[in-house]
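Task: sequence in, structure out. Protein: Biotin synthase.
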Amino acid sequence: MSYKLIFELGAKVLQQEPLTFEEAIRLTTIDEADIPILLGIANKVRITFTGNQVDTCEIINARSGSCSEDCKFCAQSAHHDVQCAVYPLMGQEQLLQAAKKAEAHGAYRFCIVTAGCGMKNDPDFDQITAAIQKIGRETGLERCCSLGILTPDHVKGLKAAGITRYHHNLETSKSFFPQICTTHTYEERVETIKNVKAAGLEVCSGGIIGLGETWEQRVELAFALRDLDVDSIPVNVLNPVLGTALANQKPLPPLEVLQSFAIFRLILPNKIIRYAGGREQALGELVPLGFLSGINGMLIGNYLTTTGRGAAADLETVRRLGLIPIAQ
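Result:
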């Protein structure tokens, strides 16, 4: 009877005892009828360890398209034939205005995102740090960025500019990564995360579910994030884009998506587990249930190349559930 297993493992987590990999795998095999019970336990764990606050972040696609990397899911990869906007780095004033809009929308954090492998020999780095400083002077936002692979010197430069958290997804598990990207390695991504942590900054790192990975590989990702002591874990759900290598990937059933959120919460009880891209397509009218399966953070508004429900609708969902968006 899988509901007994759910109660047993839920009690273990609530007693601050970490799940083992084998225990987490057992939660992937529960009866479908018991998935709502798992969601309820995950919700209890969320409340116990992180309360009712929701960490909100709005992002800007500050430099789009023509990316050299071959990530199989990505609309911005130059390896794919996708009708995607391509433009150079936005100017400082443009980025500042985007930040001010995010603040007006109610975002707590603002993240500058650029297409590309990383900042090595990138002439835009100084302009990005200058924009981060300007946003810090003229808004009350927590500032984040997602610029790909970094060296320790890049991390120092971002910290000096005022970044408090750096985003760099692992994307998927180590064992599945070569099926998703061949132009850089999983180990390079891990090294950037370690460089960021070593500098005393927080890390936002998660991945995408529904890429074709097994349940075991999905759980492997969650444990890797736990081992790296990542602070914020965005969980995207693949939204297949025509022209990418995963355009025909079969979507995950909604209950499996919610079950995945709940298992991540039990593995990572005291972390921010963040709603990210693909939730609208994967869940439709079930989007609010994500917050009742362990989610306590979200991207609000739009994503890099696709539109969301809008910041106002996102925050209304949060409030109607009795949750509290973190304020400035």
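The first helix runs from residue 2 to 14.
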